[in-house]
Amino acid sequence: MGVGRIGAVLAALGMLSVCAASGSGHVAKRETGAEAEGAEPWDGAVFRPPSALGAVGVARNSGTRRPGREEAVDLPVLLWWSPGLFPHFPGDSERIECARGACVASRDRRVRGDSRTRALLFYGTDFRASEAPLPRLAHQSWALLHEESPLNNFLLSHGPGIRLFNLTATFSRHSDYPLPLQWLPGTAYLRRAAPPLQQRAEWRRRGYAPLLYLQSHCDVPADRDRYVRELMRYIPVDSYGKCLQNRELPTPRLQDTATATTEDPELLAFLSRYKFHLALENAICDDYMTEKLWRPMHLGAVPVYRGSPSVRDWMPNNHSIIIIDDFESPQKLAEFIDFLDKNDEEYVKYLAYKQPGGITNQFLLDSLKHREWGVNDPLLPNYLNGFECFVCDHELARLDAEKAHAASPGDIPVPEPHVAQLSHMACPMPTPGFGSVEEIPENDSWKEMWLQDYWQGLDQGEALTAMIHNNETQQRKFWDYLHEIFMKRNQNL
Ligand SMILES: *[C@@H]1O[C@H](CO)[C@@H](O)[C@H](O)[C@H]1NC(C)=O
Ligand SMILES: *[C@@H]1O[C@H](CO)[C@@H](O)[C@H](O)[C@H]1NC(C)=O
Ligand SMILES: *[C@@H]1O[C@H](CO)[C@@H](O)[C@H](O)[C@H]1NC(C)=O
Ligand SMILES: *[C@@H]1O[C@H](CO)[C@@H](O)[C@H](O)[C@H]1NC(C)=O
Q1: Would you call 351 helix, strand, or coil by DSSP?
Q2: To test the ligand 4 pocket, which listed residue (140, 465, 471, 473) has its Cβ within 8 A of the most ligand atoms?
Q3: What is the pLDDT of residues 46-57, one digit of tens each?
Q4: CB of 442 sitting under 6 A from ligand 3
Q5: Does the pLDDT at position 23 exceed 70?
Q6: Atom of ligand 4 nearest to the CA of 471
Q7: Which residues, other chains included, contact 414 with Cβ-Cβ below 8 Å and sequence gap of 6+?
Q8: Which residue's CA is minimally distant from atom 13 of ligand 4?
């Protein structure tokens, strides 16, 4: 699984690592990416790293070693276990300089058993319980980077899955190295002026609907099409993607899915004709917000949003988006959109955050100000390198604490273990986009796929936890453990 994905990541990282290696600060850039409208990454078919992964590496001078520094031989080693996500180039290992000191980052799996290897780094989308490195060594932390959709790996949404890890960087604000704003470059991105209302009124007269839908990944846990289909009964929606398509983008170039996945100016200009964009994430989880939310705001459209239940916490003010779940039915939502569509004065209130001083949410402003990584920002590290340094610093601190304990075991206790919490992901069980589970026939593809997938994630987390607990050394026994857990669960039904 994931060969194409790994190739894409390598390509992206190969570019971004050039500047880290040369230390000259010259900037390697790749295209600004939006999440694929065509095929969101989830099963290894397609992988497109989000834009932040494509940004520039941590600027540092790796060529010149300052005198008096420890040799690399003594440094803690961080081993990137997931293939394809090694943010350095060329070679298999690299000395990195972080706030507390230096570490060696490596992708050479042969160092796994080494006593200096203090942390294994995993990419959530690629993490397979059946392939986890066993036996788990007590002196090694497991670190998880998972900024992508929860649907890529539901194992991580359950306690037994996430608690396998010691350090996390996820989209959740509660993770150790939080990435909730990974798709928001900054306040200027939100402030960009909206097209004049007269222009949009003209487009409406030319037959465009008030609402846009552009989605080509149709069978997703959030089951968004079921809702949109219902909404379409009450208000016109122009749908251009593969899901519920009822119109075609105007030119072959725009119809090309490769264009739809970029910040292509022609595409953006076209999309900005719409006053409202249906913005439904592919999976529901606190703090999981993507370009589906931020891009309409950039374009001066009002997102009609379903996704993170805590989205309000991040909005520029308390009147910037329409939240689908505030409405008791698609019909009520349609009536409200229709009302705004006909009342410019009420509509423009949703764009007030674009005015000077209009971004009043201090939590949002502070979060943007204090994050150390940037989104396509040549002056800031990307979060991949940022997290690597976070792990390095954590391990240096842990080593110091262990040394202090060893020097005076009577006075200084053994350092406390640090284990990830359920809140670092905790995405809820998928529910139907419209209606109740009981109303949906058993042979419905959503029902067949996602509920099973979600609960299998729990079984897999429990199986691996049991293996680690038993000091299991043989990976291939995973299926026996899984079978046993499955049988136990079904006995208790
Ligand atoms: C929204 O913000 C405005 C201005 O800050 C405030 O007066 C109003 O009470 C807020 N409304 C809600 C529902 O929080
Ligand atoms: C890492 O997490 C595991 C639980 O998954 C825990 O048993 C272990 O003590 C933790 N290690 C450290 C160094 O905190
Ligand atoms: C599901 O079952 C119903 C009735 O049993 C049938 O009419 C329908 O065609 C089936 N749908 C699919 C997708 O198999
Ligand atoms: C696993 O190994 C640890 C450390 O060697 C030991 O304390 C523990 O009892 C072992 N657990 C089992 C179930 O064998």
Answers
A1: helix
A2: 471
A3: 223 343 333 333
A4: no
A5: no
A6: 1
A7: 402, 405
A8: 470
- Residues, the chain, total? 493
Q: Where are the domains of the chain?
A: 3-182+378-445, 192-358
pTM to 2 decimal places: 0.86
Assess contact for 274 and 212: CB atoms under 8 A: yes
User: Around Cβ 90, how many Cβ atoms within 10 Å?
Assistant: 9
Residue type, 237: V
Tell me, in angstroms, the distance from the centre of ligand 4 to residue 254's CA: 59
In eight-state DSSP terms, residue 335 is H
Q: Which of 51, 140, 138 is nearest to 373 (CA)?
A: 51
d(CA 460, CA 160): 9
Q: Quickly list H helices, 283-418.
A: 291-298, 330-342, 344-348, 362-370, 383-407
Phi, psi values for residue 119, rounded to 5° = -150, 140
**CATH fit for domain 192-358, picks 3.40.50.11660, 3.40.50.980, 3.10.50.40, 3.30.420.10:** 3.40.50.11660
Taking residues 85-110, report their average pLDDT.
94
